[in-house]
């Protein structure tokens, strides 16, 4: 009985989501077909999806998608390898934190896009530039989240560990780090979006190979339907990656108040 | 066994200091159950943290079997007032209890036995693979007690362990502590602000004053064993003792100049 109810409610929510999506798509289609929006810049949704399905059959499309994802994964991966240990080092020592805080507060607000000329100068227009920008942008949220996570450890938990004579190394690996994992997970999710944004930005602005460059090419070629199709693809990739991280969080952080009962 | 000698603790430096403990001395004998009672904010947690080697005293010392306590001694198990924060939410009941046993150089079987025995003695056998946050407050505090017991301490330090559970649970947990104290043959220092609880549980009661805190009085409790929530509390001696402690705390308050 309770199960049936839950299923029906689950179905209901699913139906609501799709009803919303469908409404927007139908309205957009009508707006374009009736000429409310100029078709030259805003083709009907059906045409966008026709172009999208056509692109799915093209090797260049998959190559570009792979290149964008390559920039994303390298950017996020390198940022994680640098930011998480750095956050751990800074988060476990007040002295180190004080020493580097000013540097961090200066570098963090720099918009990554401001580094585009530098990236071109140093790395040219290829993959390296894209990865460099993605790493720079993805580094900060992860560093800050890791740092907060390490600092937000419950003093009672640390006292408990000390009272039961856990060594300093054990206190860090068994108490501080597990407590910081939710913060790191949030940082990863934020940095993942940021890395994707910067990968596409680099492709658009510098012309690094990938979906961003293909979007530009579609514009130059006057293929508005393909332009939108590719924009939709970048959106779907962002949504997919985010869902992936959210699902991983539900598994790993099942003990955390934000995830309890979500299994 | 445990000796508190002229212990004082002042927090902070310069202008902004809090004198939490003025000068405290008392002893705890082997196997004894000593309750420390005093009003909120009088420095009970500070005292217990000094005794556990978690906090260095400003002056004076705590000695365990003649050795000055400089860090957490291995003979001491601690039960914190904030049970939910003292248990790791990412560890099951079993893993929480096993966490402090890593250093005990035990075989796997021995470790499992210690954990399961402790869980059984606090009456949580069916919950060993649950997570702490799946349990009620009283049950969480049982887990914390089991963790301290599995550690096989000679001395159990308990900081207002039942201050935030309901009355019925509290009575059950008080009797649980009296029982495991016998089963495990452990010396207990039990801090509370509740006079009834101190008199009910203790062999002796150390009454603290308001800050700057000193020992107001040490009282022997000669109530018959085993203690019983109904019968013991009906005894005229019980009423007498609790009135005595109450007056001791109150008298001291009246001696203080009004501010
Ligand atoms: N870490 C600390 N820093 C500064 N003052 C503290 C600290 N811990 C406790 N105090 C102060 O010391 C006094 C005694 O606190 P505490 O030992 O927690 O009392 P109790 O446990 O009896 O309620 C209080 O006035 C409290 O504000
Ligand atoms: Mg306290």
Written overview of the protein:
The complex is a heterodimer of chains A (263) and B (259). Chain A is mainly alpha-helical and 263 residues long. Chain A has helices at residues 2-33, 45-56, 59-91, 94-107, 116-123, 127-151, 155-163, 168-205, 211-220, 224-252. In chain B, 37% of the residues lie in helices and 24% in strands. Chain B folds into two domains: 1-75 and 155-162 and 173-258, P-loop containing nucleotide triphosphate hydrolases (Rossmann fold), CATH 3.40.50.300; 82-152, no CATH class. The longest helix of chain B is centred in the last third of the chain and has 20 residues, at 236-255. Chain B is globular. In chain B, helix 4 (108-121) packs across helix 5, helix 5 packs parallel to helix 6 and helix 7 packs across helix 9 (236-255). With 259 residues, chain B is α/β, with parallel strands linked by helices. The interface between A and B is medium-sized, with 21 and 23 residues. The complex binds adenosine-5'-diphosphate and magnesium ion. The site of magnesium ion (MG) has 5 residues of chain B, from helix 1. Chain B: It comes from Prauserella muralis. Chain B: InterPro entries: AAA+_ATPase, ABC_transporter-like_ATP-bd, ABC_transporter-like_CS, ABC_transporter_ATP-bind, P-loop_NTPase. Chain B: Keywords: ATP-binding, Nucleotide-binding, Transport. Chain B: GO terms for molecular function: ATP binding; ATP hydrolysis activity.
Produce a short descriptive summary:
The complex is a heterodimer of chains A (about 260) and B (about 260). By secondary structure, chain A is mainly alpha-helical. Chain A has helices at about 1-35, 45-55, 60-90, 95-105, 115-125, 125-150, 155-165, 170-205, 210-220, 225-250.
């Amino acid at each position: 009985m309770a199960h049936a109810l839950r299923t029906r409610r689950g179905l209901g929510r699913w139906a609501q989501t799709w009803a919303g999506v469908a409404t927007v798509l139908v309205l957009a289609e009508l707006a374009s077909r009736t000429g409310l929006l100029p078709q030259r810049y805003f083709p009907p949704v059906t045409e966008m999806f026709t172009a999208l399905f056509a692109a799915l059959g093209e090797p260049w499309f998959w190559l570009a998608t792979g290149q964008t994802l390559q920039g994303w994964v390298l950017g996020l991966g390198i940022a994680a390898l640098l930011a998480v240990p750095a956050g751990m080092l800074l988060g476990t020592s007040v002295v180190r934190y004080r020493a580097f805080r000013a540097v961090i507060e200066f570098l963090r607000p720099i918009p990554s896009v401001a580094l585009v000329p530098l990236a071109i100068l140093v790395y040219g227009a290829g993959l390296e530039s894209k990865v460099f920008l993605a790493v720079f942008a993805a580094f900060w949220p992860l560093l800050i989240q890791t740092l907060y996570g390490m600092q937000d450890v419950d003093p009672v938990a640390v006292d408990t560990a000390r009272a039961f004579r856990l060594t300093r190394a054990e206190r860090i690996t068994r108490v501080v780090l597990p407590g910081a994992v939710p913060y790191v997970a949030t940082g990863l999710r934020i940095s993942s979006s940021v890395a994707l944004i910067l990968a596409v930005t680099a492709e658009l602005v510098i012309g690094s190979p990938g979906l961003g460059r293909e979007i530009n090419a579609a514009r130059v070629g006057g293929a508005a339907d393909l332009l939108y199709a590719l924009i939709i693809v970048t959106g779907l990739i962002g949504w997919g990656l985010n869902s992936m991280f959210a699902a991983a969080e539900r598994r790993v952080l099942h003990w955390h108040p934000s995830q309890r009962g979500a299994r | 066994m445990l000796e508190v000698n002229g212990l004082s603790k002042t927090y902070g430096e310069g202008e902004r200091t809090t004198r939490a403990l003025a000068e405290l001395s008392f002893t705890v004998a082997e196997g004894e159950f000593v309750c420390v009672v005093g009003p909120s904010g009088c420095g009970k947690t500070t005292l217990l943290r000094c005794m556990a080697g978690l906090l260095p005293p400003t002056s004076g010392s705590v000695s365990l079997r003649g050795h000055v306590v400089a860090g957490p001694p291995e003979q001491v198990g601690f039960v914190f007032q904030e049970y939910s924060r003292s248990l790791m939410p990412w560890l099951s009941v079993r893993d929480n209890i096993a966490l402090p046993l890593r250093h005990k150089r035990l075989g796997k079987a021995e470790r499992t036995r210690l954990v399961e025995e402790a869980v059984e003695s606090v009456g949580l056998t069916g919950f060993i693979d649950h997570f702490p946050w799946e349990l009620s407050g009283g049950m969480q505090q049982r887990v914390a007690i089991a963790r301290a017991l599995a550690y096989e301490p000679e001395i159990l330090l308990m900081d207002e362990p039942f201050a935030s559970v309901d009355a019925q649970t509290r009575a059950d947990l008080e009797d649980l502590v009296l029982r495991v104290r016998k089963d495990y043959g452990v010396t207990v220092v039990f801090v509370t602000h509740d006079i009834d609880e101190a008199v009910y549980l203790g062999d002796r009661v150390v009454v603290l004053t308001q800050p700057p805190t000193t020992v107001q009085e040490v009282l022997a409790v000669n109530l018959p064993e085993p203690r019983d929530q109904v019968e013991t509390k009906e005894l005229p001696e019980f009423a007498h003792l609790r009135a005595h402690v109450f007056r001791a705390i109150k008298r001291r308050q009246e001696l203080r100049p009004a501010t």
